[in-house]
Amino acid sequence: MNIFALSSGKGPSGIAIVRISGPQTLNICKALTNEKNIKSNEINLCKFIDPKNKKIIDPEALLLWFPKPHSFTGDDLAELHIHGSNAVITYLLKVLSDQKNCRLAEPGEFTKIAFQNNKIDLVKAESIGDLIHSETELQREQAANLVQGHASKYYENLREKLVKSLSYIEAKIDFAEDDLPGSVLKEVQKSIKQVHTDIKQILEDQKVGEKIRDGFRISIIGDVNAGKSSLLNLLSKRDAAIVSEEEGTTRDVVETYLNIDGYPVILADTAGIRKAKNKVEKEGIKRAIKKAKEADLTLVMIDVSKKTINSDVKKLINKDCILVFNKSDLSKKTPKNEFKNNDQILISVKNSKNIDRLIKTIKEKLSKKFMKANNILVTRERHRAKLNAALKEIEKFLKKDQKKEIETAAEDLRLATRHLGSIVGKVDVEEILGSIFQDFCIGK
Fold it and tell me: What is the rounded CA–CA span in Å between residue 208 and residue 197?
């Protein structure tokens, strides 16, 4: 079966790209162009026609032909570069659907075939999707690093260390009469302990990779009518939250996704903190406090014209908070307070004063708090679950008496190897045998 799909965005556009992949790709391209000699890995200038009625689909287009296995999918693949009007795109897709054994590709099917043909691993497949959907510079950088295979190589290196160690243990089980040198077993233990340390270090990352993919959570809390909703609207450049001079307007949490100078952020506006006047407001304040506790960073909004900080608001201030004193157009001085170690910024949402400084401080705060993690970031819960599972199996192995429980210890290590391999999509027990043959010359 051959598959096709529009790989560029929906028209109209200057150029649109349609991909075809499968065993009959070249024959389909010849039928669409009437060209007998289509050159591979070169740009072919041609016109596309409807084979049924010879109508011209696009009089001047480009065809790129990549024979297997030297293509993205590993199968024969072609790219049709056509003029990007909706009419041209629609007609070409219809003609392709009329070809024998040719159907519209399912979402992600080209990448899936590439994985099945060992052109890419699972981590790279996932990161291609992340790169396509990246909206901020930080997301782009992270996805680009993953596409280049940095994380895959690291996981694969850890897995190979376990495979190597397991091969020695399997040899000890299969050839019990031939004692392995004590130094070899010590090296096995040392190597496995190092893998255990490396995995723990990866997992102690404050989930930075997932936060970059999904967005850092920032909550705005503080006084009623301190300008929390106005700040949300200003940063999001739209009326995301209702703004009113009436106190207690915000009752529920209002969230919006932002790109703050390259950082993906989910910004939450919350109810003003005060003695609640009714059940609805009380629930709103309860949600505000909960959201602040769950946030990666909290902006505490304070009405500078009130000269003091609300005692209920003070209780919510910790070392990770940024104190944002709003309404500098009404007062130029921040109230004296005991939070000297916190970042404190005097702004005016009304006049957009010092907003750039606030954005810079938010970025610096997130960077300082999260960007000290290991260069290998876990970007998906699937990876984290597999790493945790591998860690548990290694811990079970290390707790066992290697002399008395060698067979069950080997099984622990075998499972740990499989968990690591499943991250990149590689699980091959035959590699253990291969390693044994290489290192012990078994089978002579």
Answer: 19
